[in-house]
From TrEMBL:
Protein name in the entry: Uncharacterized protein
Lineage: Eukaryota, Viridiplantae, Streptophyta, Embryophyta, Tracheophyta
SUPFAM superfamilies attached to this UniProt entry: Ankyrin repeat
Origin superkingdom: Eukaryota
Repeat found in the keyword field: yes
ANK repeat ranges, renumbered to this chain: 74-98, 108-140, 141-173
Length: 192
């Protein structure tokens, strides 16, 4: 969405610079630029509020329905950010609002559940599962939440996932090749 707005603005600016600029054209270009900046600022406010677990700001932004469907360069949504930080109230608010599904994926196929596991927050994992997250979800590299929890040494989360139906046989079948967990939310790669 944001990329489309920026591309439109760039084309409009180029078009206006190659033409005889009228006052209306200049006004339109200025208006579009301000709208693009406003949308980007609202999206950044949503991401920042989710990262901090700032419910008051999230509630306000949700009431305005602004910047809620944005993604960063890695495809992360505000729900992904709240999940990795373990902000359960923010997760409930964002997912419960209907603006973001618990199965949304980043560019590498990480869902909020994967990031809650990566963040080591059992309460966030439990909440996402209660909200319908797929306990068997796989990233594009084939990593499941259970594999991630086992690899990262989060025994409490591993037990939670097993108790919620995570299939160890399926996780083991996907682990034939070297398991590398590389999150788009960080620059680290963990291999087992």
């Amino acid at each position: 969405m944001f990329l489309g707005l920026l591309q439109f603005y760039s084309k409009l600016s180029l078009h206006i610079s190659c033409q005889n600029v009228t006052t209306n054209d200049a006004f339109l270009a200025d208006y579009v630029q301000k709208e693009v900046v406003d949308v980007l600022q609202r999206w950044e406010q949503v991401m920042t509020a989710a990262r901090r677990g700032d419910l008051r700001s999230l509630e306000f932004l949700l009431s305005k329905r602004t910047g809620l469907r944005g993604r960063d360069q890695y495809g992360l949504t505000a729900l992904h950010v709240a999940a990795i930080k373990g902000h359960c109230d923010a997760i409930a608010l964002l997912a419960g609002s209907g603006c973001m599904g618990v199965e949304c994926e980043d560019v590498e196929g990480h869902r909020p559940l994967h990031l809650a596991v990566e963040g080591g927050c059992a309460d966030a994992v439990d909440l996402l599962l209660d909200m319908g997250a797929d306990v068997h979800a796989r990233t594009k590299r084939g990593a499941t939440p259970l594999q991630m929890a086992d690899t990262m040494g989060y025994d409490d989360i591993s037990q939670l996932l097993r108790g919620r139906g995570a299939d160890e046989a399926a996780a083991a079948a996907g682990a034939d090749a070297q398991l590398c967990i590389a999150s788009s939310s960080s620059s680290s790669i963990s291999c087992a």
